[in-house]
Each structure stands twice: as structure tokens, then as C-alpha cells.
Design goal:
118 residues; alpha/beta
């Protein structure tokens, strides 16, 4: 039996975090932490060492990019999925350079699952 994948979900919108977490748990993915800003994302990553970080790009108190940089400093191979409601090519471009998949809201949960399970 293979281990459940562990994920932390970071978004400044609490409903999004809750929905995501419920979705993932239903799909047999273990949500080991929730946070609402970039600072928490970094802290949770250090504590929980999840397989995957699901993180919103547009957040107060430590943007997604700030968190991604710090997480990659901790583990250059960290698996990160960026999500955003913003339609910014700048964001997409930066993420591409970091080889981070970018998912726009409203999300396609199948797409997210396939990345997590890859």
C-alpha cells in the first residue's frame, strides 16, 4: 500500500482553503496543514515537510513568491503548485522559470490531482 501524499494548503481565502482541503482528503490525500499567508506557508513547510505545497500567489503578509523562494531554499526539490485568481502573465512567466505549475481559479480539481500524484 503506498503512502498517502501529504499536502499543505495556503490561501488567504479561508473558504478556498477549506474547500481544497476537503476535496483533497476525499481523494485520499492527507492535508497536514493550512495557512493563510506566505509566512505561515514557510513555517508549515519546515514543520510538516509535506510532499506538495499548494499555494496562492496573491496574499498579504509574505507573497506566494516569497514563500516559494524560502521553501526552495529549504528543499530545492520541493513540489509546489501555485494557484491564483489573478490573470497575470508576469506571475506565469516567473513560475515557469521556477518550473512550478500554475493553476488558475476557478480550479480544475482533476488537473491538481494529476500534478499531486505525478
Amino acid at each position: 500500500m503506498d503512502m498517502k501524499r501529504s499536502v499543505i494548503v495556503i490561501d488567504d481565502d479561508e473558504d478556498t482553503v477549506r474547500l481544497f482541503s476537503e476535496f483533497l482528503e476525499e481523494k485520499d490525500i492527507k492535508v497536514v496543514g493550512n495557512g493563510y499567508d506566505g509566512i505561515t506557508a514557510i513555517k508549515l513547510y519546515k514543520e510538516k515537510k509535506p510532499d506538495v505545497v499548494l499555494i496562492d500567489m496573491m496574499m498579504p503578509n509574505g507573497s506566494g513568491f516569497h514563500a516559494i523562494k524560502k521553501i526552495r531554499n529549504i528543499n530545492p526539490k520541493a513540489k509546489i503548485i501555485a494557484i491564483s485568481g489573478g490573470n497575470s502573465y508576469l506571475i506565469e512567466d516567473k513560475l515557469e522559470k521556477l518550473s512550478i505549475p500554475f493553476i488558475r481559479k476557478p480550479f480544475n480539481i482533476a488537473q491538481i490531482l494529476s500534478i499531486i500524484n505525478a
